[in-house]
Write a structure and sequence with these properties.
Chain lengths: ~110, ~110
């Protein structure tokens, strides 16, 4: 059972570099989202999407870009990495009408 | 004040004991509440939703107190495998945005 698949699991970047975190789900969920998790803080929503072609900003969108060209994929792009973006990133998906979010295994990003 | 607050712990509890922890939320208009469990260096997973009348799932009981704006999680007969961080989640004004607590760490000792 694939569920939500995130890649890469680990990444080290230098300040100013760009990269894309990939997220794919095979559950036909309408809703997909990206969170970051930092020590001592709750998960914070970066961007979310309620369907192909529809995206919106969450709580901490600055420095990140997303697109949703298909139901299955929701990549997160870091435009110019900064040390403040060092974090663990989770992609999550769900049916819009349901309460349960299904998460990927996480991507650990370090920006030097 | 944070929108969702939890005691970070850790709660160190002997195996077989009962443990309870609370989570307070600031938005009185919040409609949906959840407990998620997160194992060390893993992704969060839904433990249970919290209903207005309270609900039970095996050894786990969740309750909602709207007047005082908190939800609680009670774990009975705790097992070593219950060791994890428990995340309180509240759905706020927007149907698409969840507000997450920072989590309560629970350590069950043999």
């Amino acid at each position: 059972n694939a569920g939500v698949t995130q890649t890469p699991k680990f990444q080290v970047l230098k300040t100013g570099q760009s990269m894309t975190l990939q997220c794919a789900q095979d559950m036909n969920h309408e809703y997909m989202s990206w969170y970051r998790q930092d020590p001592g803080m709750g998960l914070r929503l970066i961007h979310y999407s309620v369907g192909a072609g529809i995206t919106d900003q969450g709580e901490v969108p600055n420095g990140y870009n997303v697109s949703r060209s298909t139901t299955e994929d929701f990549p997160l792009r870091l435009l110019s990495a900064a040390p403040s973006q060092t974090s663990v990133y989770f992609c999550a998906s769900s049916y819009i009408s349901a309460g349960e979010l299904f998460f990927g295994e996480g991507s650990r990003l370090t920006v030097l | 004040r944070k929108e969702v607050e939890q005691d970070p712990g850790p709660f160190n509890v002997p195996e077989g004991a009962t443990v309870a922890f609370n989570c307070t939320y600031s938005n009185s208009a919040s409609q949906s509440f959840f407990w998620y469990r997160q194992d060390c260096r893993k992704e969060p997973k839904l433990l249970m939703s919290v209903y207005s009348s309270g609900n039970e799932d095996g050894r786990f009981t969740a309750q909602l107190n709207r007047a005082s704006q908190y939800i609680s999680l009670l774990i009975r007969d705790s097992k070593l495998s219950d060791s994890a961080t428990y995340l309180c989640v509240v759905r706020g004004d927007s149907n698409y945005q969840l507000i997450w607590g920072a989590g309560t760490k629970l350590i069950i000792k043999p």
